[in-house]
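Predict the structure of Phage minor structural protein.
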Amino acid sequence: MSPFEQSLLMWAITGIASGAIGYLLAWLRGRSRRDTAIDDGVRVLLLCELERQQREMVANGGIADNESKSRAQTVYDAYHQLGGNGHGTAVNDDIQRAPIARKP
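Done. Here is the predicted structure for Phage minor structural protein.
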């Protein structure tokens, strides 16, 4: 292979590799944005579920049995893993501090 052909081949390989890497990086960035949107949506839905469980507890006279507390903690753990804090923590704490039965 002549030096000119070798040079031409190297330019072609470099161009193809650069294009492929650029495409891969753009695809990864797009996927990351989509994953972030999905995470945000799931976090909001988990917070809504915690708030629903809190409303159920209030409607039940402020009582949260062990099963309710366990469900709330499971939802909160997933919420927290997705970066949720603040309000969701307060809602979960409220449920966890509730008595499990009415006082006689």
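The chain has one domain: 3-97.
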